[in-house]
Write a structure and sequence with these properties.
Elements lengths: L2 E2 L10 H5 L9 E7 L2 E6 H11 L13 H16 L6 H8 L5 H11 L10 H20 L1 H4 L4 H13 L11 H17 L9 H17 L13 H21 L10 H17 L1 H9 L5 H9 L8 H13 L4 H20 L6 H9 L8 H19 L19
Helix pairs in contact: 2-18, 4-15, 5-10, 6-9, 6-11, 8-9, 9-11, 10-11, 12-13, 12-16, 16-18
């Protein structure tokens, strides 16, 4: 549970105004973890030490006596050493990725974490070429002008839904026609290959981080508009498109029940989120229940889109570093991250005293640009503590009869 060390003098209407640090308005966040029957208090610096010493990143822990710059330098050295090996140690890569991946290595590391790029570097080039060609072969089989004439009404409906969603893509850098065409192809091919779920609204958001990372890898740029001066633009865009498709596919392989009919996985995650909040902050959970607030009202987008719409791209990529470090357990980790985010926002906003409407509005109107790197580190660290707390005490989830269950739409 997060508590506010020093209350703010004036209640603001947006999260950004609460998070602004100034000389006369500072917040000291302290975190709590349960030890037996009581909570032990420790600061955000202690939290980073805890997550470093007990998490998968034990060798990448942050000492309170070292600056963030020193930590980042160590991360760069560690990744550089590991990635220069002819046979990359994936276990070690997963371990240190939990604490964040330097941007210069992120594309390679994400491909490795998602088992798309082989650890054996002697076959890397041929393996990636083979997978990229596979994607375009599949694209030609389902998306050529000849094939479009043979589309069923279901396939036409899929394309229509994708085309309706793409203009709503959060980041304006992905709204150019060239990018939208790439996204349309990737999402359509994925939908054809996964008929059990097909395309589901929100999947376009999950594609953005991959496209951004691979674009940045190829050119060191952040938007496609900067590509005009490159001679090999078409070839590189093909690689970016194929890599985005395969990594997007690998991500969704572990999240399939979030998007199948009635989205059973999503409602399981929402129920678990409610259970976690009830245990780590009973006062907040009770207040939410008393006000008649449904978790769907504020958490549906968080869970469905992996927080893509809640953070600016640099912080989102930092969060996804931790997610992909243990890609087989993203759904589980994501619940704890959402719980940590909710308890933090409740403390900063003083949400327990707000009306039903104000509670939901303030969460929905939180500005992505207001969050800082420190905020993200604290959320990830708190989520780690929550996850460890419950993994060591699974009985917490056994007695949930008093908690309402979410409808599955069946």
């Amino acid at each position: 549970m997060i508590i506010l060390g020093q209350s703010l003098s004036n209640k603001k209407s947006k999260l950004g105004e609460f998070l602004v640090k100034s000389s006369n308005q500072k917040m000291s966040l302290r975190f709590h973890r349960r030890t037996n029957s009581s909570f032990e208090s420790f600061s955000s610096t202690d939290m980073l030490k805890l997550s470093g010493s007990n998490s998968p990143t034990s060798s990448a822990k942050v000492s309170p006596n070292k600056s963030q710059e020193s930590f980042e330098s160590k991360q760069i050295r560690d990744f550089s050493s590991l990635l220069s090996s002819p046979m990359i140690n994936i276990t070690r890569i997963r371990s240190i990725s939990w604490a964040g991946v330097p941007s210069r290595f992120r594309a390679t590391v994400w491909r490795l974490l998602l088992d798309y790029e082989p650890a054996n570097q002697s076959i890397k080039k041929s393996a990636l070429e083979h997978k990229r060609n596979d994607y375009f072969d599949c694209l030609n089989r389902v998306y050529s002008e000849t094939q479009k004439k043979l589309w069923t009404s279901a396939l036409k409906a899929t394309q229509d839904q994708i085309l309706r969603d793409l203009p709503r893509t959060k980041d304006s850098r992905f709204r150019s026609k060239e990018v939208q065409d790439i996204f349309e192809r990737v999402l359509f091919v994925w939908a054809v290959r996964h008929p059990a779920s097909g395309y589901v609204q929100g999947m376009n958001d999950l594609l953005q981080p991959f496209f951004y990372v691979f674009l940045n890898e190829q050119y060191g740029i952040n938007s496609i508009e900067e590509l005009s001066n490159f001679d090999d633009k078409e070839e590189k865009l093909r690689e970016i498109e194929a890599d985005s498709f395969w990594c997007f596919s690998k991500l969704l392989d572990g999240l399939q029940d979030l998007y199948t009919r009635d989205q059973p996985g999503l409602y399981k995650m929402m129920e678990k989120l409610q259970q976690v909040v009830a245990r780590v902050d009973p006062e907040l959970a009770n207040w939410i229940e008393e006000e008649g607030i449904q978790y769907q009202e504020f958490a549906f987008r968080w869970l469905n889109c992996l927080l893509v719409r809640e953070f600016e791209m640099p912080l989102l990529l930092r969060l996804w570093d931790s997610y992909l470090a243990n890609s087989a357990a993203i759904a589980n980790t994501h619940v704890y991250v959402c719980a940590a985010m909710l308890t933090k926002m409740a403390a900063v906003y003083h949400l327990k005293g707000e009306s039903h409407a104000e509670f939901v509005i303030k969460i929905q109107q939180a500005e992505a640009a207001a969050w800082t790197t420190t905020d993200m580190d604290e959320i990830i660290a708190q989520a780690y503590v929550y996850e460890k707390m419950f993994s060591q005490a699974p009985a917490h989830f056994k007695n949930s009869n008093s908690l309402p269950h979410f409808p599955t739409g069946k």
